[in-house]
């Protein structure tokens, strides 16, 4: 089936799109979007792939679910559209970047600037019903995004995977640790961060150190 996703990904995921589970998933998503308010907006469901092509991937950050508040989700995990108040997890991400790298806390929470530098900002579930966290989980998205992680692991080398929190850490089993680097820590949510599991992980400077060691361009966080 035809999926509106960047051709660099379409070429490698074509077989996935034709599987029964994916056809069922798309049917579910279309029904949800037609009958109730869902996020992100339809054209932005695959934004993570459109803004970070397969060839450009250098870093992968894995989230769980899109934001479910009005105007927040823009298809990139942890990211919000320009002009939207920063959610608590994103605030803690920016605080850690400031402490770790000295980059000043930004005005915009839109992480498209990261995606365009080769950071795949991948939610395990790509859609959600408004105001209902987790409402599109276990419908097939996780099977698809697990395949994406496996594809990157199998077909690329020297990718930095940032796994934050228990959910993301479970994805480590999909990654070839002989070919890639994995950095883990607690989740940036206040519940985890305030217990000391997030701040001080220095993942942003560590990621750039790894990229530099592989002769890759560092990320301007």
TrEMBL record:
| Name the record gives this protein | Uracil-DNA glycosylase
Native organism: Psychroserpens algicola
Q: Which domain of life is it from?
A: Bacteria
Pfam families according to UniProt: UDG
Specify whether DNA repair is a keyword of the entry: yes
Q: What does this protein do?
A: Excises uracil residues from the DNA which can arise as a result of misincorporation of dUMP residues by DNA polymerase or due to deamination of cytosine.
Task: Give every Uracil-DNA glycosylase-like domain span.
Answer: 49-211
Q: Which gene encodes it?
A: ung
Q: Give the family per the record.
A: Belongs to the uracil-DNA glycosylase (UDG) superfamily. UNG family.
